[in-house]
Amino acid sequence: EKADPQKTAFLLRKAWTLYSVTPLYGFRRARLRDYARLLGAFIAAEKQKGLAVEVGVELDIKVALSSLADIRGSELDQAALLVQLSSRSRGSSRNSEDKPVWWGWFCSVFGDELSENVPEHFTCLPLFLSHGAESYTALVGSWFQKTFDCCFRRLAISPLNLSWMAAMWAGCKLDRAASAVELVFSVPRLAQPLDISYAIHPEDAKALWDTVQKTPGEITQEEVDVFMDCLYAHFHRHFKIHLSAAKLVKVSTAIASAHCDGIVKILHSQYLPGVLMLLTELAISQIQ
Amino acid sequence: MDETVAEYIRRTVLKIPRDEIKMMLQKWGFLSEAQLQTLNFHQIKDNISQEVVQLCEENSADIKQAAVLDIIYNHIYQNKRMWSVYQMKKSGEELEYFDITDFKKKFKRRLRSALKNVTITFKEYEDNAIWIRVAWGTPHKKPNQYKPSYVVYHSQTPYVFISSSVLKSTLPLLCQALIVASNYHDIRDMELRSHSLNSLKDIVFKRYSQNFQTCTPKPLQGGNVEPENADIRIVEENRSEKERIHRLNQEVFGSGPQPKLEFAQYRLETMFKSDPKMDVLDKKEPFRCLVKFSSPHLLESLKFLAPAGMADAPLSPLLTCIPHKARNYFKIREKKGLYPESFVSP
């Protein structure tokens, strides 16, 4: 279950934009090289049409598709699929290095709920994460949609799910140099917008969660509610403000951070599978 | 004219919005009216600034004059900078007559004795405000004109407003020079910061309204306190509660506009208290938190929290004390004794 830290290092500390993807029809692992060539040709053609990215920059985009065998929950999951776009400026020598400009990867971590019920010839990789220019994301997305008859949708994260993440991640074992557990709220509908950042010392947040969680390895909605209520009550005691009435928009911890617009950053390779499992679940809920 | 001075003047003019360049050059007064007439203000800024530099060349501008133009720009666009407020303290009760020449002399002497390469410029404004600009160098390098510190000192008060250079080591030198020059013996950071220099002045000079009932209350977002509909079939629920909240808000905030602050930060080192039935955390050590409120206009947004149902009325004194305690950075510890629910802010 543990992913090779070297191969997955590039996944850490990047802000990934999240999408849910419906199952891909007719996708074959053996044809990755072909797909890379076709996608590359598609991108070049779109550029000719003047529909793509960088204005005035002479760039050739090289496409690489690969499998990340370690990124999956169980044998029932498909291995993750990585798409990488690199640029090489025209006119430079063959020896010059390609510079990566965009990453996108499809994955499924314990996504059995979806793959169980899917007919033959469909590949389930419900979670898609992208990093890089939005215009490249649009190009890659539209090629996949056309080629495999699938559908991409931005994945928003609700305040409810953000509080789950806060509770889960606050309870993780800590390094000495762990950063605070920060909750960011936005207060809607005021004449002047107000943002509230509530950052708790990681040791103290973990100490609180440890007294709330009854069964190690298991988290219930009730426990998450108690954890959040404690934090809200502590805040109210000081400021007389009902944080529960504000909108939780971002959660940031030493493990990972997540924003309600569906943007996630994972900081610790040890917790990568756990975070992906949660995000896979969110993606599947959006698809169904 | 020195090349670096020419470049500095060119870049300063480039910062100014095109339709304000003429006005600022007039305020500067270094170029004659005749020279200003020769400038074409309808071309692109790049060309305007080149022409200005040429005229400055004719007049042999040096860094001192260029620095004055920079002060004028920063005085008008003061809200682009972050200002911190400092308060100076006198040892005795002696009322000393403020002599501006003496102040400037002592300030320059103190700084120059610590650092050979500094550019120091003063400009006085109407409201007794002395603007000071300091560009910092090292024993071997000429002053960096692009990272200066700005100080605004109101000579009839112990308050100094500092927009610090990013070169952090310069702040202690600056503070030293200020107290020596103004005959004070100490200076402290009031932990009060904002982009709005005028609001900071409003707070420390107590120029904002408190409990002043002259203005009519503004209509609240999402509903009026005084319903204007004549339809008697619509009865407002909790009317008396709404009125109570409104009244409490008036008492705390007054009816006038609030000083403009963008944030308030609280370092909490208080105990975590919970209902014993909940069986949660019961530590003897503080529950450490850092809370930060941000808004384009913080005090105005806080005012509307209770009417919006997001907060109890009256609002917590931790928030409402900001203007009269004249600070927006706090460290809160538990107060021991009879009232364990109340807090102490040192």
From TrEMBL, chain A:
Chief location category: nucleus
Nucleus keyword on record: yes
Compartment(s) where it occurs, according to its Swiss-Prot or TrEMBL record: Chromosome, Centromere; Nucleus
GO cellular component, as recorded: chromosome, centromeric region; nucleus
Alphabetized UniProt keyword annotations: Centromere, Chromosome, Nucleus
Keyword Metal-binding found: no
Family note: Belongs to the CENP-L/IML3 family.
Protein's name in the database: Centromere protein L
Species, as recorded: Quiscalus mexicanus (Great-tailed grackle)
TrEMBL record, chain B:
Keyword line: Centromere, Chromosome, Nucleus
Entry annotated with the keyword NAD: no
Major location (coarse): nucleus
Keyword Nucleus among record annotations: yes
InterPro entries documented for this protein: CENP-NAC/CAD_complex, Chl4/mis15/CENP-N
Ranges in coiled-coil conformation: none
GO CC entries: chromosome, centromeric region; nucleoplasm
Any single GO BP term: chromosome segregation
Cellular compartments annotated: Chromosome, Centromere; Nucleus
Pfam families: CENP-N (PF05238)
Protein family membership: Belongs to the CENP-N/CHL4 family.
Name assigned to this protein: CENPN protein
Taxonomic lineage: Eukaryota, Metazoa, Chordata, Craniata, Vertebrata
